[in-house]
Automatic annotation (TrEMBL):
<dbReference type="InterPro" id="IPR052949">
    <property type="entry name" value="PA_immunity-related"/>
</dbReference>
<dbReference type="Pfam" id="PF13599">
    <property type="entry name" value="Pentapeptide_4"/>
</dbReference>
<protein>
    <recommendedName>
        <fullName>Pentapeptide repeat-containing protein</fullName>
    </recommendedName>
</protein>
<dbReference type="Pfam" id="PF00805">
    <property type="entry name" value="Pentapeptide"/>
</dbReference>
<dbReference type="InterPro" id="IPR001646">
    <property type="entry name" value="5peptide_repeat"/>
</dbReference>
Amino acid sequence: MAYFIESETYIEQTFRRRSVTREALNRLEFEDCIFEQCDFSESIFTHCKFIDCTFKDCNLSLINMQSTRWFGVQFFECKLVGVDWTTADWPPFHLDSELSFERCILNDGSFFGLTLQGLRLVECKCHDMDFREGDFSHSTLIDNDFSHSVFMRTNLQSCDFTGSSNFNIHLLENTLDNAKFSRFEALTLLYSLNIELVD
């Protein structure tokens, strides 16, 4: 069933329990829209725009977002496994895309080389994610599980990692000026220096 019309613009609408899996969605524009319990898994978004939208309890795993723009979008309790965010449209004049993820599953995703200053990740599972060579300065990254995620030549200046765990961040290969960590978890940063810690 076709829920959305190609090249259509949707403003201030709410979409509930829509199942749009493995579909091709072209040149759609959503502004101030709310998506609740929708399933977009494995769909292809091409040249779409999501402006100031909110996703709640949605499945967007394995979506392809070719040249799709995301600005001011919030995700709550969503599943976004295997998403390659590098294929989206990120205008160079918007250093802060105002993306926010809360209690989401973002495993196996990639933010490689992106400039997403002010990114907000709160209580998310971020396993096996690629943050290499990105600029995430001034981001809020609290209470997340970063198991097996990769940081290299990443700008993490003034980021707040309070309550986050299982990160492997090399002190000499990343920018961490004024970053904030919980006291116990901060000790794991020293392992990258190949030093021995004693009581």
